[in-house]
Design goal:
alpha/beta; eight-stranded mixed sheet; 37% helix
């Protein structure tokens, strides 16, 4: 079922306007979706948003320098931590005291920042395809300890792709580049549906009104993001997804995250990499809904 959507631009900070969209019953528990770096809110697949909106008032939004939000990094540079403050500003503007949150990639880091700095605003959090903002070491099942900084790095083919300069050769060439990017990010365990990701990126381009990709998030100052102590003290229910084909934050990153964030638990999404193809959407939606309802039951109890 397709739920009608309400679009609204909100003021997040001086000179910063963010596009937001809400879907689902306004009196349902709010669920804020936080996308990854350089990704617009419409990067959350429609089918997934609709499935979540059966049970939640789902909010998605465009980060600064993506989609229909303010593009002003060169005139008004900001830090990555400011993007986490934007997520709180969205809740403020929409008059939502507390929300469930789900973050992918950089969105998972921003969600950790909100958990650490504004735990009173979060009903539950789901962290996908991300790494811990903690210096605590990872302890393997056999008891061996690995410093956080020595956990497995991003796969070389991903880094190689990110390092390539983006040439402007027109819309179709840019769609080709993005589809290839998703192919690499998707991992090697699920068949790759090129048409699906091409359609997704075409929607992103139409939404933004441009096919030019922003590099702002990659250039933003990422200092001051560690939250080791507050994450260890966390009491908000946290679900960490394990994506076995993840090429950006490969295992044991999720296991590490679940160790260093208080009260976190793990769920494996079979075949998942660093993307949201149809094959992972069903299991992911089921995991999120199970988590949000368990969190609600715990609060009620």
């Amino acid at each position: 079922m397709h739920h009608p959507a309400t679009e609204q631009c909100i003021d997040a900070a001086p000179g910063v306007r963010l596009w937001t969209e809400r879907r689902g019953a306004p009196d349902a528990p709010p669920l804020l979706l936080v996308m990854g770096a350089a990704a617009a809110g419409v990067g959350w697949p429609e089918e997934m948003v609709d499935a979540l909106a059966e049970h939640h008032h789902v909010i998605r939004y465009d980060h600064r320098d993506t989609g229909r939000s303010t593009t002003a990094y060169d005139e008004q540079p900001y830090r990555v931590v400011d993007l986490a403050q934007d997520a709180v500003a969205v809740l403020d503007a929409l008059e939502i005291p507390r929300a469930h949150m789900a973050g992918l990639s950089l969105g998972g880091m921003l969600t950790q920042l909100v958990l650490a700095d504004h735990p009173d605003r979060v009903l539950s959090a789901t962290l996908m395809g991300t790494c811990a903002l903690s210096t605590r070491p990872y302890v393997a099942p056999d008891g061996t300890s690995t410093p956080a900084a020595e956990l497995p790095p991003i796969f070389p083919e991903v880094l190689e792709m990110w390092a390539r300069p983006v040439e402007d050769e027109g819309l179709e060439a840019e769609l080709d580049r993005r589809v290839e990017h998703w192919r690499v990010l998707g991992g090697d365990q699920l068949p790759f549906d090129e048409g699906y990701f091409r359609d997704l990126e075409r929607r992103v381009v139409v939404h933004a009104g441009t096919y030019k990709a922003s590099t702002a998030h990659g250039r933003a100052d990422d200092s001051g993001m560690l939250r080791t102590a507050p994450l260890a003290r966390n009491e908000v229910p946290v679900l960490v997804t394990v994506a076995p084909a993840e090429p950006v934050f490969p295992p044991p990153h999720p296991q590490h995250l679940a160790q260093v964030v208080g009260g976190a638990r793990l769920v494996e999404i079979p075949g998942m990499g660093h993307a949201l193809p149809p094959a992972v959407q069903g299991p992911l939606v089921a995991a999120i809904l199970e988590h949000t309802s368990a969190a609600a039951a715990r609060r009620a109890g």
